[in-house]
Write a structure and sequence with these properties.
The chain is of the alpha+beta class and 154 residues long. The chain contains 5 helices and 5 strands. The protein has helices at 2-32, 35-42, 46-55, 72-80, 112-129; strands at residues 62-67, 96-102, 108-109, 133-135, 147-150. Strands 1, 2, 3, 4 and 5 form a 5-stranded antiparallel β-sheet that branches. Helix 1 crosses helix 3 (46-55) and helix 3 (46-55) crosses helix 5. Bound molecules: zinc ion (ZN).
Protein backbone atom coordinates (compact mmCIF):
# COMPACT_ATOMS: atom_id res chain seq x y z
CA UNK A 1 0.00 0.00 0.00
CA UNK A 2 2.68 2.44 1.09
CA UNK A 3 4.85 1.57 -1.89
CA UNK A 4 1.83 2.02 -4.17
CA UNK A 5 1.32 5.55 -2.80
CA UNK A 6 5.02 6.25 -3.25
CA UNK A 7 4.73 4.94 -6.81
CA UNK A 8 1.82 7.25 -7.64
CA UNK A 9 3.63 10.18 -6.06
CA UNK A 10 6.72 9.30 -8.09
CA UNK A 11 4.72 9.26 -11.33
CA UNK A 12 3.03 12.57 -10.49
CA UNK A 13 6.23 14.37 -9.56
CA UNK A 14 7.84 12.94 -12.68
CA UNK A 15 4.97 14.30 -14.80
CA UNK A 16 5.27 17.69 -13.07
CA UNK A 17 8.98 17.96 -13.84
CA UNK A 18 8.14 17.05 -17.44
CA UNK A 19 5.38 19.67 -17.66
CA UNK A 20 7.42 22.40 -19.39
CA UNK A 21 8.71 19.86 -21.92
CA UNK A 22 5.23 18.42 -22.47
CA UNK A 23 3.55 21.79 -22.92
CA UNK A 24 6.24 22.76 -25.43
CA UNK A 25 5.74 19.51 -27.33
CA UNK A 26 1.94 19.78 -27.31
CA UNK A 27 2.18 23.31 -28.75
CA UNK A 28 4.71 22.18 -31.35
CA UNK A 29 2.46 19.23 -32.23
CA UNK A 30 -0.51 21.54 -32.58
CA UNK A 31 1.48 23.69 -35.02
CA UNK A 32 2.94 20.80 -36.99
CA UNK A 33 -0.40 19.16 -37.88
CA UNK A 34 -2.76 20.44 -40.57
CA UNK A 35 -6.20 21.83 -39.68
CA UNK A 36 -7.76 18.76 -41.27
CA UNK A 37 -5.60 16.47 -39.12
CA UNK A 38 -6.40 18.45 -35.95
CA UNK A 39 -10.13 18.23 -36.68
CA UNK A 40 -9.93 14.47 -37.08
CA UNK A 41 -7.74 14.15 -33.98
CA UNK A 42 -10.25 16.13 -31.91
CA UNK A 43 -12.76 13.30 -32.36
CA UNK A 44 -10.39 10.76 -30.78
CA UNK A 45 -10.01 9.83 -27.11
CA UNK A 46 -8.18 12.61 -25.23
CA UNK A 47 -5.32 10.27 -24.29
CA UNK A 48 -4.65 9.57 -27.98
CA UNK A 49 -4.87 13.28 -28.79
CA UNK A 50 -2.17 14.14 -26.25
CA UNK A 51 0.08 11.27 -27.32
CA UNK A 52 -0.11 12.25 -31.00
CA UNK A 53 0.43 15.96 -30.28
CA UNK A 54 3.49 15.20 -28.14
CA UNK A 55 5.00 12.66 -30.55
CA UNK A 56 4.42 14.41 -33.91
CA UNK A 57 7.06 17.17 -33.49
CA UNK A 58 9.67 14.59 -32.41
CA UNK A 59 9.51 12.62 -35.64
CA UNK A 60 11.52 13.66 -38.71
CA UNK A 61 8.40 13.08 -40.83
CA UNK A 62 5.29 15.04 -41.74
CA UNK A 63 2.43 13.32 -39.96
CA UNK A 64 -1.18 13.27 -41.19
CA UNK A 65 -4.08 12.08 -39.05
CA UNK A 66 -5.84 9.93 -41.64
CA UNK A 67 -8.67 8.55 -39.53
CA UNK A 68 -9.92 8.38 -35.94
CA UNK A 69 -13.63 7.69 -35.47
CA UNK A 70 -15.15 5.32 -38.03
CA UNK A 71 -18.77 4.47 -38.75
CA UNK A 72 -20.05 0.91 -38.47
CA UNK A 73 -20.89 0.90 -42.20
CA UNK A 74 -17.33 1.87 -43.12
CA UNK A 75 -15.89 -0.78 -40.78
CA UNK A 76 -18.09 -3.41 -42.43
CA UNK A 77 -16.88 -2.31 -45.86
CA UNK A 78 -13.19 -2.47 -44.76
CA UNK A 79 -13.76 -5.96 -43.37
CA UNK A 80 -15.38 -7.13 -46.61
CA UNK A 81 -12.56 -5.62 -48.68
CA UNK A 82 -9.94 -7.37 -46.52
CA UNK A 83 -8.49 -4.15 -45.06
CA UNK A 84 -9.53 -5.12 -41.54
CA UNK A 85 -9.92 -8.35 -39.58
CA UNK A 86 -12.64 -7.24 -37.18
CA UNK A 87 -16.04 -5.63 -36.88
CA UNK A 88 -15.15 -4.71 -33.30
CA UNK A 89 -12.57 -2.02 -34.18
CA UNK A 90 -11.30 0.53 -31.66
CA UNK A 91 -12.00 3.10 -34.39
CA UNK A 92 -15.74 2.73 -33.75
CA UNK A 93 -15.35 4.39 -30.34
CA UNK A 94 -12.57 6.86 -31.16
CA UNK A 95 -10.02 4.76 -29.26
CA UNK A 96 -7.80 4.39 -32.35
CA UNK A 97 -5.94 6.70 -34.69
CA UNK A 98 -4.32 6.06 -38.09
CA UNK A 99 -1.25 8.22 -38.69
CA UNK A 100 0.08 8.44 -42.24
CA UNK A 101 3.57 9.74 -42.93
CA UNK A 102 4.01 12.09 -45.88
CA UNK A 103 6.92 12.16 -48.28
CA UNK A 104 8.30 15.54 -49.41
CA UNK A 105 6.01 15.34 -52.48
CA UNK A 106 3.04 14.98 -50.06
CA UNK A 107 2.24 11.42 -51.14
CA UNK A 108 1.96 8.69 -48.50
CA UNK A 109 5.16 7.09 -47.25
CA UNK A 110 4.63 3.31 -47.04
CA UNK A 111 8.10 2.39 -45.67
CA UNK A 112 7.39 0.20 -42.62
CA UNK A 113 10.74 1.21 -41.02
CA UNK A 114 9.54 4.81 -40.89
CA UNK A 115 6.36 3.75 -39.09
CA UNK A 116 8.55 1.79 -36.67
CA UNK A 117 10.43 5.01 -35.89
CA UNK A 118 7.10 6.81 -35.44
CA UNK A 119 5.91 4.05 -33.09
CA UNK A 120 9.01 4.50 -30.89
CA UNK A 121 8.11 8.17 -30.40
CA UNK A 122 4.43 7.34 -29.86
CA UNK A 123 5.27 4.67 -27.27
CA UNK A 124 7.75 6.93 -25.47
CA UNK A 125 5.22 9.74 -25.20
CA UNK A 126 2.45 7.32 -24.19
CA UNK A 127 4.63 5.99 -21.36
CA UNK A 128 5.40 9.54 -20.27
CA UNK A 129 1.68 10.39 -20.21
CA UNK A 130 0.66 7.13 -18.54
CA UNK A 131 -1.29 5.97 -21.62
CA UNK A 132 -1.58 2.24 -22.41
CA UNK A 133 -0.88 2.25 -26.14
CA UNK A 134 -0.94 -0.54 -28.70
CA UNK A 135 0.78 -0.21 -32.09
CA UNK A 136 -0.75 -2.05 -35.05
CA UNK A 137 2.75 -2.79 -36.34
CA UNK A 138 3.31 -5.12 -33.37
CA UNK A 139 0.39 -7.36 -34.36
CA UNK A 140 1.63 -10.77 -35.51
CA UNK A 141 -0.82 -11.30 -38.39
CA UNK A 142 -1.99 -8.04 -39.87
CA UNK A 143 0.85 -5.52 -39.46
CA UNK A 144 -0.78 -2.10 -39.49
CA UNK A 145 2.01 0.51 -39.31
CA UNK A 146 -0.19 3.64 -39.23
CA UNK A 147 -2.55 2.25 -36.54
CA UNK A 148 -2.35 3.15 -32.83
CA UNK A 149 -4.99 2.38 -30.26
CA UNK A 150 -5.66 2.33 -26.53
CA UNK A 151 -5.43 -0.98 -24.74
CA UNK A 152 -8.96 -2.40 -24.31
CA UNK A 153 -10.37 -1.89 -20.81
CA UNK A 154 -11.17 -5.09 -18.94
ZN1 LIG B 1 -6.53 1.97 -37.67
Amino acid sequence: MFSAILGIFGTLSHLLTMLPVLSFLLTAGFCSLSVDSLQKLAAADLRLQLTVLAAAPLTPYDVEVAETVRSRARQLRLLREGHSLTLNSAHLTGRAVDLMLLKPDRTYDNDFDHYQNLSLMMKTMATLLGVDLIWGGDWPKFKDGPHFQLKPEK
